[in-house]
Write a structure and sequence with these properties.
Elements: H1 3-10, E1 38-45, E2 48-54, H2 60-74, E3 78-81, E4 84-88, H3 92-102, E5 106-109
Parallel strand pairs: 1-5
Antiparallel strand pairs: 1-2, 2-4, 3-4
Length: about 110
Amino acid sequence: MDLADALRNAFPDHEPEETVASNEEKSFDFYVHTTPTLQCCYEKRKGKATTVIKSYEGTPADFKKLASAIKKRFNIGGGIKSDDIVIQGDYREVIMKFLKECGFTVKRVGG
């Protein structure tokens, strides 16, 4: 007897909801542009590995939303410094994949 059977026995009148898989397009709170391409760089700052995202064209509010979305998605630290998003650690591959899913064109720069 597994958990599902135990719950059915405990609550015989319960009818489970049907979950419908939605194929809706993802909507983002920030501006997505395709040209120029975003640059995803690997740098060492004060001996620590960092991932830097450059060349974003949008409002400062959208810039903050993009940085926040990246940090929340991967549970990593970082911030915004002089029109760059600085992420702690070498996360180029996963960040580039995420940005491509969002609709950006991304170029890997350095290292």
